[in-house]
Amino acid sequence: MSVTLKLATSLDGRIATASGESRWITGPAAREEVHRLRAIHMAVLVGVDTVIADDPELTVRLPGYVGPQPRRVVLDSRLRIPPACKLVETADRIPTIVVTTKDSNDRLTDAGVTVLQVEASDGRVDPAAALAALEAAGVGAVMIEGGGQVAASFLGADLVDAVEWFRAPIVLGDEGRPAVGAFPLKALAAAPRFRRLSIHEVGDDLWERYGRS
């Protein structure tokens, strides 16, 4: 199982304003590259808070694209995913998985959603358990797209293999929402460490690519 973390941030590492506004921090060229990244991953993963805030489709939308769509995966410990969201409404056409710590329910399964129950860690879906369940379901490469606490949980568990970071030339300040939430770190030496592989200009934005050190 390979895990890629995709970030789309301001220069100061924020993914949204304090009010939650996030569309669009990066420009159209960067967003097109994100769609290409989705196309080469078997699954795209987000937390339920991202679904509630943004109602994303998490599909590949490129001109002329006819390849398979990645599976859409939502980490949702308490099954809060709205039944009217795009992911649930299109689950009968595009594979959609909810990973939870709760028992499944008919409103999701009847809509075509696959529900995977895993163990909890501090009240949330355990990231290692989620990856194990996805691997057992046939997912070999996943890209994490949000939000900050999901990114923190996978980084804190040392489960991220690569980072695709798109940085826009704007500054949102301290009250903006961070790309990576809090996770325990007792010493600098214990911090997840990556090596920069490349930097590309994509429109007005920068695309930095990192791999494990």
From TrEMBL:
The keyword Transport does not apply. Keywords: Hydrolase, NADP, Oxidoreductase. Pathway: Cofactor biosynthesis; riboflavin biosynthesis. The keyword Hydrolase applies. Residues 3-206 form the Bacterial bifunctional deaminase-reductase C-terminal domain. GO terms for molecular function: 5-amino-6-(5-phosphoribosylamino)uracil reductase activity; diaminohydroxyphosphoribosylaminopyrimidine deaminase activity. Its EC number is 1.1.1.193, 3.5.4.26. Transmembrane segments: none annotated. This is Diaminohydroxyphosphoribosylaminopyrimidine deaminase/5-amino-6-(5-phosphoribosylamino)uracil reductase.
